[in-house]
Amino acid sequence: MNILYDERIDGALPDTDKDVLIKHLHQHIPGLDLLWREEELKAYECDGLSAYRTTPMLVALPRRLDQVQQLLQICHAQQVPVVARGAGTGLSGGALPLEKGLLLVMARFNNILHIDPAARTARVQPGVRNLAISQAAAPFGLYYAPDPSSQIACSIGGNVAENAGGVHCLKYGLTVHNLLKLEVLTIEGEHLTLGSDALDSPGFDLLALFTGSEGLLGIITEVTVKLLPKPQVAKVLLASFDSVEKAGRAVADIIAVGVIPAGLEMMDNLAICAAEDFIHAGYPMDAEAILLCELDGVEADVHDDCQRVREVMQQAGASDVRLARDEAERVRFWAGRKNAFPAIGRLSPDYYCMDGTIPRRELPGVLRDITRLAAEHGLRVANVFHAGDGNMHPLILFDANQPGELQRAESLGGQILELCVKVGGSITGEHGVGREKINQMCAQFNSDELTLFHSLKSAFDPQGLLNPGKNIPTLHRCAEFGAMHIHAGQLPFPELERF
Amino acid sequence: MNILYDERIDGALPDTDKDVLIKHLHQHIPGLDLLWREEELKAYECDGLSAYRTTPMLVALPRRLDQVQQLLQICHAQQVPVVARGAGTGLSGGALPLEKGLLLVMARFNNILHIDPAARTARVQPGVRNLAISQAAAPFGLYYAPDPSSQIACSIGGNVAENAGGVHCLKYGLTVHNLLKLEVLTIEGEHLTLGSDALDSPGFDLLALFTGSEGLLGIITEVTVKLLPKPQVAKVLLASFDSVEKAGRAVADIIAVGVIPAGLEMMDNLAICAAEDFIHAGYPMDAEAILLCELDGVEADVHDDCQRVREVMQQAGASDVRLARDEAERVRFWAGRKNAFPAIGRLSPDYYCMDGTIPRRELPGVLRDITRLAAEHGLRVANVFHAGDGNMHPLILFDANQPGELQRAESLGGQILELCVKVGGSITGEHGVGREKINQMCAQFNSDELTLFHSLKSAFDPQGLLNPGKNIPTLHRCAEFGAMHIHAGQLPFPELERF
Predict the structure, then answer these.
(1) Which of A67, A483, B82, B251 has the most CB atoms within 10 Å of its CB?
(2) pLDDT at B199
(3) Which fold, A233-343?
(4) Boundaries of CATH 3.30.70.2740 in chain A?
(5) What are the residue boundaries of the FAD-binding PCMH-type domain, all occurrences included (chains A, B) (predicted)?
(6) Residues spanned by CATH 3.30.70.2740 within chain B?
(7) B-chain residues within 8 Å CB-CB of A429?
């Protein structure tokens, strides 16, 4: 979307003689698969955020650890930027390649190394798919809890890089809460172990620092995750409301009575209708909002919780509350939610999926403000989100072929994220910052905080060779962004003036 | 204990003209309470690790944020090292003062700023006591989960600095898992907000990096913690075993069947007898080991779990399993455990409390090795620990007045911690590294990893003014430690040779 930015980042990078680099890599790393022809590179020009595209200079597909290590050493010596990529399902452009950089694809590291049922851990390579871990753990009655919608395809290395979430993070936490240990390589090819197999690790918490660092600090080569016992029972309640505010209130009330649902999701009318047309999940198309609330645990406990949640929903003004009759209906209720994004994709030539978080109490007010902002921009917005977490996913519908619509969608998206920051939330819940939200980082953090981020980055990667131009904006960039906003008369926060 | 080390750290620091500094602080920070007379300083010469003592140059007791900010700016300008202190209950000497440094006591920042029952959060000043948070939250049916044994006295700022744990961390996590947001000041007096009120925060995870950083990165000025709903019911099972190995196996088996106890604690015979003599908790003095297992949640769930845990304990060879009849007996069972340290203190003039973690499966083997090492050193060791977490607290009994016993106790302690590292664990579970375990950090981390820690420290505090000589050893120190060990013929890990 933001072509200007791509050009500038790449423009600032040193030129590399591509042929010399290829020769060098072939010579020193026998058996390393490299792609460099235009038609081969095409498949790697974007990740899940397809609006941003760049053709990489070179793609490497190593199979062995020593290949990755040597490749990093060579790129470090020759000052070639390296962008890591897992399955390429990320939604913020974190794996967007660089014209003057090497794209390091870790997809072939796809072995499950060890499942330890007693310790309840799985040690896996970074290219292993999220769902494959749960499948491998299933014979032991265990599973890996974080479940992004892309879990069938996304890789655990990418999950760590983006600190991925999912429907069940309300109860079970984000990726960072389900990790024990990482093996990583620095840009210089040094091997580091972060975390340990035990409860805690002394020194600074590098495991948490690395999680969600979006490929800026090093390359993940092995991941040890925690596994959880599969709950005995899971039940889903579907509640219908005649206003999104009432549904928002019900969310706060459910949490307030002390129930912790496994998942608590909200959809508004546009999302409900799109999903129902597409999946026939059994959603009430006349409802202004629905809540899906999953409760899991032992039988008696789940039964009690269902009763309590039903009462709270009714008191909050639900016009109807249905318990999924059986497992088939439960799966159907979730299928509607999990396919909501493609369903909305059928309504509009393009859509732009946002990912902001807000304190739960701000839900009704923020939903109202989004409706107002959407009307001002002349665009439709569908809301589908992890309501229990306060993790919103407004989907902005637009048509890139209509002059000005793309710009209006970008402007609306930016304003929604800044609204999240204003009420005490953040510009990303689970999709990461990547390339997409680099401007909004200037609204989220002040210049002292950004300077600190750059110092930390330098501790791992002094030359800035790992994934430059993602996650952490330069102060210069924030100054430009701030100035732009003032110029357009839309400055959201007076603090921006200081840049 | 290690006087040599204190001298060296202080020796390397620049001399400050104390009178000039006092005058400067008084002049620029009206109303700031300063202590500088020998007799006033006495109370601050150690924290909970009383074997290490140093008289600070100066103690400051600010009441307001602007005083802390100005004090830091002055110390930064004059290159005076600053050691922060909360309630001074830490067990690893993290708040041990420096002869040439200022001790910054944050105890007067003891206001609870806001309890938000809907968001289930508490915003407090750093000097607020751990238990005071739960007391303030109680009217809303909420509490703060991490519960170090010192919870009646220790402050939340210190809990964050050491990433404190407690009996209930098995189910509810360490301090880092129960935090939302920190307000901190850097050594330059810059204000930073780490984390947010919402689910996740973009950029690097500075909240986790800061937690457990032991005062090396900045001064905590405000803490927002998560609160949890109080469980409906809590029950405790007390199981007796005729060997510690059987008790160790029961721990692994309980976790393996998928129950997550609120607490799962083990005590060996020496600890059982000491506690029983002191508290009359009703423990079986003929047992080689006991397990205390607390289960909490809703009534029906807890009832089912008690049944399952009882069966697992019996199958693992428990000779007796008793359910606390009523709340009074439950409290008595815990009182024995919570007072085990002072109880053991009655057996011996001195004791040295270790704090290592190991993977749960290694419990039986490590307990055997500790018994062997203790015999080799001619010392007694009592074991009291968070078994479910694999977080061990071997207590080494000794008499500092007997020539050589202190050195033997230190040597045994070091070897136990190195044993923890060898089986894949770590040298601290919840007490921190501080001054006490700085040598063992050389066994835990390699020189690349330590270099990285120093780079991260520099990003926050380039001059190294905050709590120098704690947590992260210099490479030079590790070289000396390694050499020392080779000389004594006790080199535990060949990797140490590389220093």
Answers:
(1) B251
(2) 66
(3) Alpha-Beta Plaits (3.30.70)
(4) 346-498
(5) 52-230
(6) 344-498
(7) 198-200
Range list for CATH 3.30.465.10 in chain A: 112-229
Among B167, B199, B447, the strongest candidate for a mutation testing the A interface, having the largest count of A CBs within 10 A, is B199
In chain A, ranges of CATH 3.30.43.10 domains: 3-105
Residues of B in contact with A200 (CB under 8 A): 163, 165, 174, 212, 357, 391, 426, 428-430
Closest approach of A375 to chain B, Cα-based (Å):
26
The two beta strands, B380-385 and B394-398, are antiparallel
Interface test with B, best of A172, A200, A420 (most B CBs within 10 A): A200
Of A285-299, A440-454, B118-132, the poorest mean pLDDT is in: A440-454
CATH architecture of A346-498: 2-Layer Sandwich (3.30)
The CATH code that applies to domain A3-105 is 3.30.43.10
Q: Out of 3.40.50.300, 3.30.70.2740, 3.40.1010.10, 1.10.1660.10, which CATH number does the structure's domain B344-498 have?
A: 3.30.70.2740
Q: How many angstroms separate the CA atoms of A277 and A270, rounded?
A: 11
Chain A nearest-CA residue for B232? A258
- For residue A206, which amino acid is it? L
Cβ-Cβ contacts under 8 Å between A and B: the total is 231
Residue in A119, A192, A305 nearest the CB of B452 = A192
Whole-number average pLDDT of chain B: 88
For residue A488, pLDDT beyond 60: no
Say which residue, A247 or B428, is predicted with more confidence: A247
Residue of B69, B200, B301, B453 to mutate, testing the A interface (most A Cβ within 10 Å of its Cβ): B200
CB burial of residue B378 (10 Å; 0-12, 13-18, 19+)? exposed
Residue of A nearest to B195 (CA): A426
Nearest residue in chain A measured CA to CA from B161: A204
Q: Does B357 touch chain A if contact means CB atoms closer than 8 Å? A: yes
**Range with the lowest mean pLDDT among A91-105, A469-483, B308-322?**
A469-483
Cross-chain Cβ contact B199/A174 below 8 Å: yes
pLDDT of residue B267 exceeding 70, the answer is: yes
pLDDT for the residue A332: 93
CATH 3.30.70.2190 positions along chain B are 233-343
Query: d(Cα A278, Cα A390) in Å, to the nearest integer?
Result: 26
User: How many Å separate Cα B495 from the centre of its chain?
Assistant: 27
Provide the pLDDT confidence category of residue A492 given band limits of 50, 70 and 90.
very low
Which pLDDT score, from 0 to 100, does residue A483 have? Answer: 36
What are the tens digits of pLDDT across the range B97-156?
Answer: 999 999 999 999 999 999 999 889 999 999 999 999 999 999 999 999 999 888 889 999
Of A329, A347, A246, the C-alpha closest to A283 is: A329
| Mean pLDDT over the full length of chain A | 88
User: Which value does ipTM take for this structure?
Assistant: 0.75
Q: Which CATH class is domain B112-229?
A: alpha beta
Order of strands, sheet of A289-297, starting from the edge strand that comes earlier in the sequence: A320-323, A233-241, A289-297, A263-268, A380-385, A394-398, A350-353
- Which pLDDT tens digit goes with each residue over B58-97? 999 999 999 999 999 999 999 999 999 999 999 889 999 9
CB contact under 8 A, A428 and B389: no
pLDDT at B212 over 80: yes
Collapsed DSSP state (helix, strand, coil) of residue A292: strand
Q: Tell me the per-residue pLDDT of A29-43, one tens digit each, with 9 for 90 and over.
A: 999 999 999 999 999
Task: Tell me the C-alpha distance between B282 and A52, whole Å.
Answer: 68
CA–CA dist B245, B264 (Å, integer) = 15
pLDDT (tens digit per residue) in A114-164: 999 988 999 999 999 999 999 999 999 999 999 988 888 999 999 999 999
CB nearest B258 (choices: A141, A190, A205):
A141
